[in-house]
Amino acid sequence: MATEAPNREAMYRVFKSLWYRKEEVDFVACLFSMLPFEKGKDIDSYEFWWFPFWLRIYNIPLELMDRQTALNVGDALGELVAIDWKDNNGGWIEFVRLKVKINVLKPLRRVVKLLDRKGTEVTGVIEYETLSNFYYDCGLIGHSSKTCKYNKGSALNESNL
């Protein structure tokens, strides 16, 4: 997916040490999606475009910082993998932290809409941890503003968040 060349030497050193390989390793992408091998499964049936990310949801009222909200938000974004319950002595202070499998072929969501206990709409702001080559204007992974071919000259506003 990347349009910019990865640092092949750094990737080679890291993966060689992890895999204990003496042979040369060749790389074709920056974001690796590795899945367990399943005997008899065709290579085309593997879904390499689903990738787990840790993300933080800010601007959630304290009353909504519970397990059910975490489950709902995780399911709305993709497939919920984990919930981090261990922030600041076991309680959420500023954000809810989730690990979610997301389809990286689609634009990443920037916000999530929630309803508080009174039925008022609340906008939760999503911050993805450790994204590589992500262009916020179009929301796609794998390129930057210099190489974006999707949203040339568009500006962020309330309708395209």
Average of per-residue pLDDT values:
76
pLDDT under 50 segments (min length 5)? none
CATH class of the domain at 51-128: Alpha Beta
- Could you give the distance between the termini? 23 Å
SSE order, as H and E?
HEHEEEEEE
Kindly state the number of beta strands.
7
CATH architecture classification name of the domain at 51-128: 2-Layer Sandwich
Instruction: Note the main sheet.
Output: 5 strands, antiparallel
Our count of helices gives 2
Q: Largest sheet, order of strands side by side?
A: 2-3-1-5-4
What is the compact description of this entry?
With 161 residues, this protein is α+β, with helices and mostly antiparallel strands. It is built from 2 helices and 7 strands.
What is the topological layout?
Elements: H1 8-19, E1 50-58, H2 67-77, E2 79-84, E3 95-103, E4 111-115, E5 121-128, E6 134-135, E7 140-141
Antiparallel strand pairs: 1-3, 1-5, 2-3, 4-5, 6-7
Describe it.
By secondary structure, the chain is α+β, with helices and mostly antiparallel strands. The protein has a domain at 51-128: Alpha-Beta Plaits (2-Layer Sandwich). It is built from 2 helices and 7 strands. The protein has helices at residues 8-19, 67-77; strands at 50-58, 79-84, 95-103, 111-115, 121-128, 134-135, 140-141. The protein has a 5-stranded antiparallel beta sheet with strand order 2-3-1-5-4, with helices on one face. Strands 6-7 form a two-stranded antiparallel sheet. A hairpin with a 5-residue loop joins strand 4 (111-115) and strand 5 (121-128). The longest helix has 12 residues, at 8-19. The two termini are 23 Å apart. 12% of the residues are buried. The model has no long low-confidence stretch (mean pLDDT 76). It holds the Pfam family zf-CCHC_4. Residues 106-150 form the Zinc knuckle CX2CX4HX4C domain. It comes from Gossypium harknessii.
